[in-house]
Amino acid sequence: MSGSPGGASRAERWAGDGLWVTFEGGDGVGKSTQVALLEEWLAAGGRTVVRTREPGGTPVGELIRDIVLHHRGHIAPRAEALLYAADRAHHVAEFVVPALERGEVVLQDRYLDSSVAYQGAGRVLDAEQVRGLSLWAAGGILPNLTVLLDLDPAVARARIDGDDRPFDRLEAEREEFHVRVREAFLGLAAAEPDRFLVLDASLPPERLAELVRARVESEIAALG
Ligand code: TYD
């Protein structure tokens, strides 16, 4: 399958070489820990794994990340959605698809579901339009598997409060925003049950890692 931009409505799971797993969820749900644990396990099994993230993941993406997460003033909601989509377009074309085509496993912290949840539900833009924009940006490709770590935003907030670092623009949003984001993620998972693995992120990290590994094992087996 080609990674070149297709029509806005095209949406297909990646069916080429490699394996593409994205991690989604609200802020503070423990995605980075799970990405790291899965990477360790896959690498120990002899797989070539690359770890990446959105926004970011490329030098251009890191510049965009700095704007969307750390700009001090207001960013118009449509401009914000376009910035995330621009990051995604570049990241998918220049980093993700080439790695998959080399047969590697790509573990990615956030993808277009984050745009639908945050810019769509959170920022009250039209969710379908936001999804269409991201699909256009990404050439219509979806990951083999999306792990959604689901957690009550109040619990997630308590975790972030324990970290010794300032909030970014999204983390600083009010609780209702994060409640809408959580509901949007769960709605996306319900609409695409084959792509999503939804896990209760209040489980101990090692237990979560086991559940993720079990699903990834079956995805790898399905590749043949
Ligand atoms: P991330 O680095 O994953 O932060 P955290 O570790 O706190 O989850 O994501 C940065 C923020 O960017 C996060 O608050 C969600 C937001 N975001 C969007 O609003 N839209 C998007 O398309 C993406 C990829 C992220």
Topology (elements, then pairings):
Layout lengths: L11 E2 L5 E7 L5 H14 L4 E5 L5 H12 L6 H25 L3 E5 L2 H11 L4 H11 L3 E2 L2 E6 L2 H10 L12 H17 L4 E5 L4 H19 L1
Thymidine-5'-diphosphate (TYD) binds next to helix 4.
Describe the structure.
This protein has 224 residues and is an alpha/beta fold. It has a single domain, classed as P-loop containing nucleotide triphosphate hydrolases (Rossmann fold, 3-Layer(aba) Sandwich). The protein is built from eight helices and seven strands, in the order E-E-H-E-H-H-E-H-H-E-E-H-H-E-H. The chain has helices at 31-44, 59-70, 77-101, 112-122, 127-137, 153-162, 175-191, 205-223, and strands spanning 12-13, 19-25, 49-53, 105-109, 141-142, 145-150, 196-200. Strands 3-4-2-6-7 form a five-stranded parallel beta sheet, with helices on both faces. Helix 1 (31-44) packs across helix 8. The longest helix is centred in the middle third of the chain and has 25 residues, at 77-101. The protein is globular. The two termini are 17 Å apart. Bound molecules: thymidine-5'-diphosphate.
Question: What is shown here, in short?
Answer:
This protein is α/β, with parallel strands linked by helices and about 220 residues long.
User: What would you give as the CATH superfamily?
Assistant: P-loop containing nucleotide triphosphate hydrolases
Query: Number of DSSP helices?
Result: 8
Main structural class: alpha/beta
User: Which class in CATH terms?
Assistant: Alpha Beta
The percentage helix is 40-55%
Can you write the helix and strand succession as a string?
A: EEHEHHEHHEEHHEH
Q: What ligands are attached or bound here?
A: thymidine-5'-diphosphate
Q: What is the overall silhouette?
A: globular
Q: Tally of extended strands?
A: 7
Biggest sheet overview: 5 strands, parallel
Overall domain count = 1
- CATH T-level fold name: Rossmann fold
Low-confidence stretches: 1-7
N-to-C span:
17 Å
Named CATH architecture: 3-Layer(aba) Sandwich
With strands numbered from the N-terminus, the spatial order across the biggest sheet is: 3-4-2-6-7
| Radius of gyration, CA atoms, in whole angstroms | 16 Å
Beta-strand percentage? 5-15%
Mean pLDDT: 92
